[in-house]
Amino acid sequence: MEAGGWAGSRAAAGAVSGAGRRDRGQSDERWGRGLGRLRARAEGSAETPAARPGFPHSGGRRPESQPSADPGGRPPLRRVHYKQRTDAPTTSHDPTVAPIMPPLLMLLLAALAPALSHAAAGGGAGFYDPARVTQISWCPRAFLYSGFLSHAECDHLIKLAKGRLEKSMVADNESGKSVMSQVRTSSGTFLSKREDEIISGIEKRVAAWTFLPEENAESMQVLHYEVGQKYDAHFDYFSDKKNIKRGGHRVATVLMYLTDVKKGGETVFPIAEGRDLQHKDETWSECARHGLAVKPRKGDALLFFSLHVNATTDRSSLHASCPVVEGEKWSATKWIHVRSFDNPPDVMADTRCSDANEQCPRWAALGECYKNAKYMVGTKDTLGSCRKSCGVCDA
Question: Which of 40, 42, 330, 386 would be 376's cystine partner, CB 3.0–4.6 Å?
Fold first, then answer.
């Protein structure tokens, strides 16, 4: 190698080595300054972020003042006052200016808006709010839902029922047939399942609350009680084989109150546990004083079970509707069975042409076979209650 080349290489290497030493020196110098600042902070130095040029203040805000060190030598309290950036977006107090909202949050609120609005109005289809439910008894199992229906839904059910009301019937304990009785003096009517969107929504809500499928429930019955009318103590489960054959026992009842009642009309459980512990003032009727009672309030719903969890009948579910003392009472009832009521496995087998209600001939003469076909005639999957009178089978 020539001398000139060797010398050039030595010079280049020296330049690189020198540059490296300078870089290390600068790095050590920066490290030393940083260590000095940390030591100064620990000793209560007045050096603050504001004293360092180019310090990236949080949010673009600059400290206005810094308290001096404590005379005793302790570090100062770091109370820093900030100015709001004038170029940062702020929430306007002008009611005409809408606040800025992230697009994803806007989409989420838009998706939840229908459910939230239904919930505020008393609940939507398939929606229920467990926070509104109060357990009132464990024997029988009974729960009160405050605001289960909206007032508009209550009014809608009453409007549908008016003009259809008939004398209420009871099931005969031996034959299972519907018969008139002074035990039950109200009037009522059945509303077909899914008769309209409102009824369909209520049925879904009942299923969501009870955790029992819609097909296990009977059609909704709307009842009207005038002054003096009542329903004496009774069980909702059956004693006859005929009614048990279709869907089994009624396991649960959802009783929805459609109006306020000035006095009376309470639902009372005469032999419920804890019945003597319930405080009652002068606003309760005399009937309600003889058991655990629930006052009818518009929109509220009472759920109680007629069977124990092992599917045996619960005699503590004995209940009554107290006579109305002042005003009137409207209610709607959903009875729910152990098995499918709409399509029980044996409903089409060994069935004879008959009517399930002695009023069927009169209802058929009034045109109910066409007006209320689901109840009177039935569907391809279910048997109607007045097939004989409607002439859809051979007697």
Answer: 386
